[in-house]
């Protein structure tokens, strides 16, 4: 089983993903920017959270974002990743930033917008479920939106989506985010998804970190 997972991960690292921007996707960041500039009703910036996240940003470092609305999961992943980086004497080269509030999608995009950040690496949960009013519109953000927004900012972004649901060709029609992903990226979402149980099994999760981070993979 372990060899199968490692072969799957190696295949992912070698795959060249195409970025085909589709007009059908409306970027959220411009809406959020306008929302803040005009002080619209609805979602408000969590300033204390933003200050906390900013403190984790190291000078001249690459960013690794861990995104989930479950703080227990992001904390576990962050601790394990720090251990990995310390063991490789690379902890100063990376800013590991986890976000786990119910408004995680909006908080993440706010952090990028306010600090002009282009993410380098991401491990992203897919489903958050929180709806907020942005620029007078009801908007729901999921992990696919965050992957798309981040890819627009940084075409070299490396990421892994993770979920508690098994997504296959048969079940994919049950999830609206699947079509959104595949229309934008021109690729099957199943090539980018890791089941959450695997991500939290640290016998394998180091391989997940290696997938998204070429600097670790080349060691």
Characterize this entry briefly.
By secondary structure, the chain is of the alpha/beta class. The chain has helices at residues 2-14, 29-37, 47-55, 71-87, 104-115, 143-153, 176-185, 196-199, 202-212, 214-217; strands at residues 62-67, 94-99, 121-125, 131-134, 137-140, 158-163, 193-195. The chain has one domain (2-8, 27-217): Response regulator (Rossmann fold), CATH 3.40.50.
Provide an overview of this structure.
The protein is an alpha/beta fold and 219 residues long. The protein has one domain: Rossmann fold (3-Layer(aba) Sandwich). The protein contains ten helices and seven strands. It has helices at residues 2-14, 29-37, 47-55, 71-87, 104-115, 143-153, 176-185, 196-199, 202-212, 214-217; strands spanning 62-67, 94-99, 121-125, 131-134, 137-140, 158-163, 193-195. The strands form two sheets. Strands 2-1-3-6-7 form a five-stranded parallel sheet, sandwiched between helices. Strands 4-5 form a two-stranded antiparallel sheet. Helix 1 runs parallel beside helix 9 (202-212) and helix 4 packs across helix 9. The protein is globular and about 45 Å long.
């Amino acid at each position: 089983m372990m060899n199968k997972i490692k072969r799957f991960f190696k295949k992912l690292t070698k795959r060249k993903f195409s970025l085909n921007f589709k007009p059908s996707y409306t970027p959220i960041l411009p809406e959020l920017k306008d929302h803040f500039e005009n002080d619209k009703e609805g979602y408000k910036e969590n300033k204390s959270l933003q200050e906390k996240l900013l403190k984790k940003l190291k000078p001249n470092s690459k960013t690794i974002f861990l995104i989930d609305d479950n703080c227990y999961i992001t904390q576990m992943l962050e601790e394990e990743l720090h251990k990995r980086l310390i063991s490789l004497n690379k902890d100063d080269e990376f800013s590991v930033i986890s976000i786990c509030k119910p408004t995680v999608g909006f908080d993440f995009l706010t952090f990028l917008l306010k600090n002009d950040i282009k993410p380098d690496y991401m491990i992203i949960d897919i489903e958050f479920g929180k709806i907020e009013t942005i620029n007078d519109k009801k908007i729901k953000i999921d992990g696919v939106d965050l992957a798309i927004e981040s890819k627009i900012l940084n075409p070299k972004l490396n990421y892994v989506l993770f979920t508690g649901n098994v997504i296959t060709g048969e079940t994919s029609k049950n999830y609206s985010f699947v079509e959104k992903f595949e229309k934008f990226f021109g690729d099957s979402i199943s090539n980018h998804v890791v089941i959450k149980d695997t991500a939290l099994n640290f016998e394998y999760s180091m391989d997940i970190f290696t997938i998204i981070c070429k600097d670790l993979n080349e060691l």
